[in-house]
Amino acid sequence: MSISHDQYSRFTDSRVLDETLAFHAKGNYTLHEATRHLSTLHHIPAKDLSKLTGKELKLNTLTNEAEACEFQLSALPLDHPLVRKESCDHFCERGMHFDAVRNLIAPLLKKIGSNHKRGYPSAGAIFPIEIFCINLNNRIEQWPTDCMALHLLPASQTFEIHSPNINTQQLTQAITPQKPDIGSPALALVYVIYLPKALFKYRYRGYRHALMEVGSLYMLTDLRSKELNLDSRPWSAFTDHQITKLLNLNPTLFLPTCIQLIG
Fold first, then answer.
1. d(C-alpha 99, C-alpha 85), whole Å
2. Three-state SS across 130-143?
3. Model confidence, pTM
4. C-alpha–C-alpha distance, residues 37 and 45, integer Å
5. Contacts of 73 (CB under 8 A, 6+ apart)
6. Is 209 helix (H, G, I), strand (E, B) or coil?
7. What are phi and psi of 128, to 5 degrees?
8. Which CA distances in Å does 137 have to 171, 173, 176, 185, 224?
9. Closest Cα to residue 107, out of 151, 73, 157, 142?
10. Which three-class secondary structure state does DSSP give residue 126?
């Protein structure tokens, strides 16, 4: 059911690994107090940003609005189970029990009656995304271990203790740096690509498959959060190296792609 992670390295092309890692590094984003005055993401004026965000892209400029009306669609009603809640702007400091964590990740586990299929699609059943559950600031009741980071084993339907010497305070600061208005989420799900697993079969294409899988994971978890009356927010305001270092992961093999805040 489970195999050692280094088994995949035997079949991974080192050149593909290096080039994918180099490409991924171009999307890294450094958030640190020491470099705030030296770095900026862009120089787009606020007026132009407002004009460009939240808009649809129309490609057919020949069709007028009247002709488009014959294709009019209807959105789902707001009480439909597939209508997601808004991403949480501020997490209130409220209690959370470990049972809520169990219920939250249930859709991500191996499906009942299946040999390997899980509750989300994965090209070739490779499942290159590893999920780490982080007890932020030790605020989840009945957390089963002194280690604040648990690694999900979806096929075994359990967690493993990832590393006993993780500094949770530093990890929490790395996950939500310089963003006091985000509030106090209790749980962080860290979605990490394990590169040898992503690349050994599909090579460069496997990186794309891994990113697709992350989207499936956080959307499914987002809808599950709504069902459990939890707030959720996909989060990218972190520095890759800080996350891998504080999780005791090899940054040349493990790539954080998204963090989902829950509270």
1. 22
2. EEEEEEHHHCEECC
3. 0.91
4. 18
5. none
6. helix
7. -80, 0
8. 9, 10, 12, 9, 23
9. 157
10. coil
pLDDT in tens, 13-28: 899 999 999 999 988 8
d(CA 222, CA 233): 8
Mean pLDDT by 10 residues, the chain (263 residues): 77 92 87 68 86 86 69 89 93 92 97 90 94 93 93 95 86 80 93 96 96 97 97 93 95 96 96
Cα–Cα dist 172/1, whole Å:
32
- Residue 247 carries which DSSP code? T
Q: How far apart are CA 198 and CA 235, in angstroms?
A: 22
* Residue 244 tokens, joined: 């891998």
**What six digits make up the tokens of 4?**
């050692």
User: What's the pLDDT score for residue 143?
Assistant: 95
pLDDT on residue 158 = 95
β-strand partners of 118: 110
> How many angstroms separate the Cα of 222 from the Cα of each of 86, 152, 162, 182, 210?
10, 17, 24, 17, 18
Neighbours of 85 (CB within 10 A): 14
